[in-house]
Amino acid sequence: MSNLPADLKYTESHEWVRVEADGTLTIGITDLAQEQLGDIVFLELPEAGRKVSKGDAIAVVESVKAASDIYAPVAGEIIDSNASATDSPESVNADAYAAWLFKIKPANADDVNALLSADQYKTAAGA
């Protein structure tokens, strides 16, 4: 399988989640997701201040092949989105784990425990 950092959490819908020191979450799409999408040409990211529920479609990534929704891995509030990724969507293809998409302040920090480990994601993705 493609690059899968063990220190991140994952969702079955191919988002990666990094828990930051302050408890906020940084979210992007996995290397597998960007490989399947192909050349990414457009990102629509959520606005800071938006309240989201787990599983909400809150962002869109468009490639030459398809448009895909990005889902909130946990409930919480959007605190930032990556303007440089919006300006250069191909950066997600170049390094899916460096090109984060948005950050969430989780409503409940324990929700992170329900996310997948790298091994669980690998199994769920069928790799």
Description:
Strand 6 and strand 7 (67-71) form a beta hairpin. The chain has one domain (10-108): Beta Barrel (OB fold (Dihydrolipoamide Acetyltransferase, E2P)). By secondary structure, it is α+β, with helices and mostly antiparallel strands. It contains 4 helices and 9 strands. The chain has a 6-stranded antiparallel beta sheet with strand order 1-2-3-9-8-5. A 3-stranded antiparallel beta sheet has the order 4-6-7. It has helices spanning 31-37, 83-87, 90-94, 118-124; strands at residues 9-10, 15-19, 25-29, 40-44, 51-52, 57-63, 67-71, 76-81, 102-106.
What would you call the structural class?
A: alpha+beta
* DSSP summary: helix tally: 4
Quaternary structure annotation: single chain
Note the beta-strand portion. Answer: 25-35%
Briefly note the CATH topology name.
Answer: OB fold (Dihydrolipoamide Acetyltransferase, E2P)
Shape summary? globular
Q: Report the top-level CATH class.
A: Mainly Beta
Biggest beta sheet attributes = 6 strands, antiparallel
**Helical residue percent band:** 10-25%
Total number of beta strands: 9
| N→C terminal distance | 6 Å
Please outline the helices and strands.
Elements: E1 9-10, E2 15-19, E3 25-29, H1 31-37, E4 40-44, E5 51-52, E6 57-63, E7 67-71, E8 76-81, H2 83-87, H3 90-94, E9 102-106, H4 118-124
GO biological process, one term: protein lipoylation
Family: Belongs to the GcvH family.
Modified residues (N6-lipoyllysine): 65
